[in-house]
Amino acid sequence: MDSKEFFIPRLGEAQIASPVQAMEFVPDDATVAYDTSTAVLEEYVKNGQAIPAFEQAGPRKLIYHDPAWSKAAILTAGGLCPGLNDVIKFLTLTLKNIYHVPLVYGIRYGYRGLNPAHGLAPIQLNEDNTDDIHQQGGTILGSSRGEESAEIMVETLARMNINLVFCIGGDGTARGAHDIAVEAERRGLSISVISIPKTIDNDIAFIDKSFGFETAVYMAGIFAAGAHNEAKGAYNGIGLVKVMGRDSGFIAAYATLAQSYVNYCLVPESKFVLDGDGPDALLPHLYKRMLEKQHAVIMVAEGAGQELFPQGEDVRDASGNLINKDIGLLLKDRINQYFKERNTEVNIKYFDLAYTIRSVAAHGADAVFCAMLAQNAVHAAMAGRTDMVVGHWNGHFTHVPIALATRERKKIQLNSPLWTSVKASTCF
Amino acid sequence: MDSKEFFIPRLGEAQIASPVQAMEFVPDDATVAYDTSTAVLEEYVKNGQAIPAFEQAGPRKLIYHDPAWSKAAILTAGGLCPGLNDVIKFLTLTLKNIYHVPLVYGIRYGYRGLNPAHGLAPIQLNEDNTDDIHQQGGTILGSSRGEESAEIMVETLARMNINLVFCIGGDGTARGAHDIAVEAERRGLSISVISIPKTIDNDIAFIDKSFGFETAVYMAGIFAAGAHNEAKGAYNGIGLVKVMGRDSGFIAAYATLAQSYVNYCLVPESKFVLDGDGPDALLPHLYKRMLEKQHAVIMVAEGAGQELFPQGEDVRDASGNLINKDIGLLLKDRINQYFKERNTEVNIKYFDLAYTIRSVAAHGADAVFCAMLAQNAVHAAMAGRTDMVVGHWNGHFTHVPIALATRERKKIQLNSPLWTSVKASTCF
Amino acid sequence: MDSKEFFIPRLGEAQIASPVQAMEFVPDDATVAYDTSTAVLEEYVKNGQAIPAFEQAGPRKLIYHDPAWSKAAILTAGGLCPGLNDVIKFLTLTLKNIYHVPLVYGIRYGYRGLNPAHGLAPIQLNEDNTDDIHQQGGTILGSSRGEESAEIMVETLARMNINLVFCIGGDGTARGAHDIAVEAERRGLSISVISIPKTIDNDIAFIDKSFGFETAVYMAGIFAAGAHNEAKGAYNGIGLVKVMGRDSGFIAAYATLAQSYVNYCLVPESKFVLDGDGPDALLPHLYKRMLEKQHAVIMVAEGAGQELFPQGEDVRDASGNLINKDIGLLLKDRINQYFKERNTEVNIKYFDLAYTIRSVAAHGADAVFCAMLAQNAVHAAMAGRTDMVVGHWNGHFTHVPIALATRERKKIQLNSPLWTSVKASTCF
Amino acid sequence: MDSKEFFIPRLGEAQIASPVQAMEFVPDDATVAYDTSTAVLEEYVKNGQAIPAFEQAGPRKLIYHDPAWSKAAILTAGGLCPGLNDVIKFLTLTLKNIYHVPLVYGIRYGYRGLNPAHGLAPIQLNEDNTDDIHQQGGTILGSSRGEESAEIMVETLARMNINLVFCIGGDGTARGAHDIAVEAERRGLSISVISIPKTIDNDIAFIDKSFGFETAVYMAGIFAAGAHNEAKGAYNGIGLVKVMGRDSGFIAAYATLAQSYVNYCLVPESKFVLDGDGPDALLPHLYKRMLEKQHAVIMVAEGAGQELFPQGEDVRDASGNLINKDIGLLLKDRINQYFKERNTEVNIKYFDLAYTIRSVAAHGADAVFCAMLAQNAVHAAMAGRTDMVVGHWNGHFTHVPIALATRERKKIQLNSPLWTSVKASTCF
């Protein structure tokens, strides 16, 4: 890594005393080293190179935006994720109670709400109308996919004198935030644009943890146990559970360990074939297990095994994400066929968890993470940072350049402790 | 109703003093009137007719089977349902702790386990190996669909000297129990065959409540709330939830009231059309609502709207049940098409709850119902009743002839308080 | 029972056509027989007596109050109970959507809100502000204990032209509703006063089921399992769980069956002593069990064993309920002492569930019951019934005179199937 | 920090090829830097000092113990914590499936089970008898407090030829593990003794996360919402919730953020007084809030406010932990008194969560953490490490010397992001 890649833009010099009370301020040059290996760290120093590190998040003693003159906007984009309302609530509380920003707007339906052509009036957010929202799944603001023109959106922000923008969403949303930041700079507007990373798949690079993920794992675990019950309840029963995970199989891997009844964990990162003699051939392995044990649970991420489909035209959603072909149905069909050819009874019970695990409220430590992430986003914005994602690394909240966060997707490393644990817990 | 239809066969005269302690015995002629209207009740008496009534369940002072010489068998058949393990546990506890029956067999995989051709050895059940099972969904015995020859099964029972048989399952299972009872009688064997009604759809006639149903409603409610979050989270969002309910829409109706966010509740009992000018045309009504409110939740029972599919050959499962065509997918397609034709954005999020709501453990009062149902099944068997279903009516546990229980399915009455409440809570 | 005791007062002749659509009206003389035994029923008829029966609840073809001129008030009194907000929501929906009553007031903090001295302004309830409330525990209206003068309250109702009053609460609340009805009649005001029975203890006579009870049982069951884990986790561990149940032990009994790990279920209805030689002596029995099994779970209702305390002055709460002495702490002390005297280690883990099981939202079928109860309360009020409780009996919703409902508390019958099941599942 | 404090003892040279498949081995000198600030890190290097760092956990290419000759023992000590059974299951699976260790003993009731005087036979653990245990709270092995003689315990290990010992428990348990390691070394026995840190309070120094903590936070959050409902349900209602947290208030702080209804979060780290004029005076602040808002929720850790009690003799439990005086009851009494003196009604609802939040099964990501912690404990033991705790730091699993882990307790830093977030979310 090159330490220059970690640079975070600032709107200007912070000169206003922070109104934040009873809190140790984080120095402007505080860092969180990217690496933790002492050998690697020493190497940098000995070579005279700066240690690559994230800017550490947190409240600054001097801030850039004058709270009394500030107006904030919050929006949510992309698919639902547990915790959206916690983030909205804590952005609002921190802006209103800690910094005393007088006006906080909730923008409706993502970037769409910043384009007046859609006629979507914003909501004023405050302590009272956000008090209960953490108990609801979804987002009180509504969400949408797709892009709007940066020129039009910045025109709206300029017209409304908004200088603090919080965009909660995935990498598409982060790229939109970047476009807004660039356009604002072009027009000479001092607008802090902060992206708050939302990915139920936990697949954002350079960020070690995403909100909503743990709640999704908890929900998936409930049904992994149900799939086990279905598998044992029928003769030669197979519980087949499909979960989210377009490019990365973190939900599948975690749910496998959280409900350690799962026998096969299929993720995009680990290729397998259906038939053949190799150790990566699913059907013969499964057939053998069924003869021995008469039951099995298969957990499959939606993005797994895409290469098993006949090649054809790709289909993409409004956010530009490739739409996966349904690996769950393919597995169901092929397993049924394989057993039928061998005159062996099999009873597959298919659980497609799609929306069931993402539409609930975040809970416990996951909700706490939302609260702290939101607060650090506000600290960053008030300090005049922009064009960045608020992240988490090595136990600290961090500032991450959007370019870095969207460069690639985080994936399961097949030699990592996580995947090793999955292998130890499963049989394939 | 004719009072003769309520007759329950007895194997012979009960002459053995019950070992049951500290419990008021239920007289052999105790009854639970079928009707509750005083006008109807008076009419019977004035006409000199017997009031139609179920035999009341409960422990008898004199029993038919000598516990010390008894051997019991328990089996589960058909699809999973919350509470199967509670029933198995309380059958075992009552047989062992209350009646001191020395041997209780758990038969594997339903009726299949009574046919030696399948090579499935039974399990001996006792207090220790059933102690934790109420915390698990599914059935520890395994289940299966399909029939076995009554001759072969009774031969097995005779060979093993089993005189108490408990068949937990739906109406197919009850018919199988009847066949066993008839064959046992033909062979002169004194075997009590008791059917314990299992239907997650709560659709057994002459029985006002089925175990597992309430837990399924609870689970479905969680996802109805999730569907509401998805509907509000996207612009013109529709949460579409499909639940079980082949012939009867009780789960859909109850879940609609339990999570009163649902706007459309579609059940087999209430016909609707997709398009047209009438008040029963779903798509125009939905389209109008979406223009006004921008979100909707639809709850649909799997058996609803089957007449909307093109006619073709019926497909049946191994239990002989008609397999429904997927009304959820049809609705999804037709709604998308309808809105597309009108150039109106719509975002449908489809929840197919199939197995997710039936594979969990029963909880709370539902588990209590399992416990009491199981106990009354044992009391009936020990008293020498056979060829019957243990049921519940007007607040009492009852004995129901299998012919009565399987004569028709219980359905939602469209003029009942239940459906009235659903109509008040929804908009269609 | 005497059939005259079932008489429900009517404000006057119902002459207005009901606006209720698509619903079969319940005839004004529809009844639900109190008894279900055919022998008992026949006896009444043969003796020329009317069969004692409740008036059946439900919508009437002709109603008394003109909806367009009506104003309704809803209040909640006494302790929290799961489902209060469901009842409030469905009263509101039924009044507004089915009967088109223009104004529905939510009265704050029980009867207190009807006394202007407290300065508590009412809330206007409608579809929008009640849409989410079923997801919250507690009551959005606030509650309180204690009485207010009927004269003052009726003066408030008269001043506000309120002709429909719904009082959700226990037997104290029902008596308050009766006082309002009497005072309204004295002043010649046509006010329907309907009491909706709330008792988490499920102890109201002549009503077979109370809302909130099933949710409380579900919650108590979670901790009964936790108590089992604590008991097995420590050497000679005892999990001691205290639940609500001042006069009746229904929660304790149901939770015992719902989580069938409980070994001792102690309720007010079944007396026991601490020491001695008898079979009802708890400590020697427990001591013996611990030597054999090294663990035990005790479920105790707060009102159990009150006679074990030294006699003294009774303490009552603001509702006039006798405050129980803490049987949980007494048991904890006496068990510790008993084992200490015998030099035997014991590790008691005490769970006092008090508020933890009553402050949650109602769920599943329990929420459905709230919805239907509320609707039937509105039907009764609109039809001009007053001075009554809406109840449930033998599978039907009913009208119950307040005098009957408050005459005595429902208690566990020690020879009932419920208690029999508890005895079968426990060891004492 | 001094880098020497991070040294982990090794039993001898690792010479045996690891049987672990398809996993990247962690080099023996892999490290996880203690600090993440680049300025601090550079300072060490420039001063010629080694960067203080933990040994990184994970599988080694060469191991010390020959699996085929190995025997393992697992024990759990101290209070219950969610996840104990997950740890036991994954220790067993890793030992049996990954390393093929033939014998894994479960020792009953903590260290007590290693003293033959108690007559507690061990259990043989395997894949089958641990398959379901992750679904149960508590520990299948039983637990206990208190010490046993290291000489006697090592004599037992020697007699049974056990060379791998896993002690799951708090700092008392870690000290016991240290004593075993020292005694084993004195006798020349090659026994790896690995401590697995269990603290529901999340208060072990040099370890950033403890298993069970997140599940406890989740449970506490449910009741914080209940306390909010009770507070709003009564006039001038106060929901008072006591949670675990003897020396550190992490559960209270996290639960406050997870259910952001809490208005006062009282922890041992932040002193407060009851009365007076200062900003740290609880009662006047609370009184003022109640006049304005009529409701409040207080979350208090059991160790908070201990200095408010009259001084007296300290009481300690069998593990030597100081037993706290009941701050919950003190607050309840003093608040009642304060309001009474001011003739102001107040309704306090007290929730003592004690065992209710620790006796449940771990779920979701918390269970995953248990699985991975257990696996790394086995890797450490097989590689010949001893006298250490397996920990987690900066996103990596680590080896921590027992002396370091038990030197002090981790506490909430009052200037940390966590406490800052709590202050932002509460009013005191």
From TrEMBL, chains A, B, C, D:
Gene3D superfamilies: 3.40.50.450. One of its GO terms (biological process) is fructose 6-phosphate metabolic process. Its cofactor is Mg(2+). It catalyses: beta-D-fructose 6-phosphate + ATP = beta-D-fructose 1,6-bisphosphate + ADP + H(+); beta-D-fructose 6-phosphate + diphosphate = beta-D-fructose 1,6-bisphosphate + phosphate + H(+). It comes from Victivallis vadensis. It comes from the Bacteria. The keyword DNA repair does not apply. Keywords: ATP-binding, Glycolysis, Kinase, Magnesium, Metal-binding, Nucleotide-binding, Transferase. One of its GO terms (molecular function) is metal ion binding. Belongs to the phosphofructokinase type A (PFKA) family. This is 6-phosphofructokinase. Residues 72-380 form the Phosphofructokinase domain. Catalyzes the phosphorylation of D-fructose 6-phosphate, the first committing step of glycolysis. Uses inorganic phosphate (PPi) as phosphoryl donor instead of ATP like common ATP-dependent phosphofructokinases (ATP-PFKs), which renders the reaction reversible, and can thus function both in glycolysis and gluconeogenesis. Consistently, PPi-PFK can replace the enzymes of both the forward (ATP-PFK) and reverse (fructose-bisphosphatase (FBPase)) reactions. One of its GO terms (cellular component) is cytoplasm.
